[in-house]
Amino acid sequence: MIYLSSFKLSHQTLKNPNIYPYNVFRDKYIEPFSFAPITIFYGNNGCGKSTLLNIIAGKLKIKGKEMPASNAYYENYCERFENECAYSLGSNEDGIPFYQLPENSRYIKSEDILYEIKKIQQKAILEHGLTYDYMQEGLSLEKAQSVLNKKKEQRIENIIFSQEKYSNGETSLQFFQEYLLPNALYLLDEPEVSLSPANQVALAQEINELTHYLGCQFIIATHSPFMLGTLNAKIYNLDAREYEVTPWYKLENVRYFYDFFKKHEKEFND
Question: What residues does the AAA+ ATPase domain cover (predicted)?
């Protein structure tokens, strides 16, 4: 499904070339982005892929947009830049155009994932403690609830999360299983955070299925070779001056992994 068909960044320039976010895309020749069911913004740190996702989320008024700090005495350049951008929506399988995005559409940032991981871990530990107290002391439901309330009152910084039982990777996958629903547009900023290579592949496969079978569209910022090689995606290389579409196996980060393991090939053959 194509909910967002295209997005055109502002081509306006300012006298001060260092004002954000105008400076992120300075000296870039950028045609409008044309989106597939899964589209990837690839690039190394500082290339602007997270900024780009946030601009799209702001222009489309998608839940999860990060609000930049602003000064009331100065112009809000982020808002100005967004207003200068343009987009077009797609159509359904019958060719009927969309006039608005699905309500469940969401922008999920890497820091959102880490925050939710800690919330899930805290809840799991509290529930584990309550179950233990209930089993060991034969508490009534009322007393058990009292125990839980006391645990909730403890300051969160004093809780030591059990990483062996509630790993970041497991809770990260749990987060995506909870929030990625059918029939929606999702902007994902580095969803591979905290995931092992195997779990990155598992998440990418799930995204492929959500797109193919359940009417989702994804725009993803990542430089993970495991995500890049698994997702059935159109990939924009933000490291290139013209933001050209590039096969995953030609991207710099992927080639780095290839060359590294090629250099150590004999060790794997021992």
Answer: 35-241
pLDDT band for position 154 (50/70/90)?
Answer: very low
What is the domain-level CATH number for residue 71?
A: 3.40.50.300
Q: Is the dihedral of CA 88, 94, 95, 96 positive or negative?
A: negative
Q: Is residue 209 part of a domain?
A: yes
Q: Give the amino acid at 77.
A: Y
Q: Where are the alpha helices (DSSP H) in the chain?
A: 49-60, 77-84, 110-137, 141-153, 168-179, 197-213, 225-230, 252-263, 265-269
pLDDT higher than 50, residue 159: no
pLDDT tops 90 at residue 117:
no
Peptide bond into 21 cis (omega under 30): yes
Sign of the CA dihedral with 170 first, then 171, 174, and 175 last: negative
pLDDT above 90 coverage of the chain, percent:
41
Q: How far is CA 202 from CA 108, 177, 198, in A?
A: 18, 12, 6
- One-letter amino acid of 106: R
Q: Which domain holds residue 209?
A: 4-111+181-269
**Within a domain: 166:** no
C-alpha closest to that of 46 among 21, 16, 83, 15: 21
CA atoms within 13 A on the CB side of 73: 0
Burial class (CB in 10 A: 0-12, 13-18, 19+), 261: exposed
In whole angstroms, how far apart are CA 228 and each of 123, 200, 201, 225, 247? Answer: 33, 10, 9, 5, 9
- pLDDT tens for each residue of 122-153: 665 555 555 555 445 555 555 655 655 655 55
Q: What is the pTM of this model?
A: 0.79
The DSSP string of 37-83 is SEEEEE--TTSSHHHHHHHHHHHHT-BTPPPPP--TTS--HHHHHHH
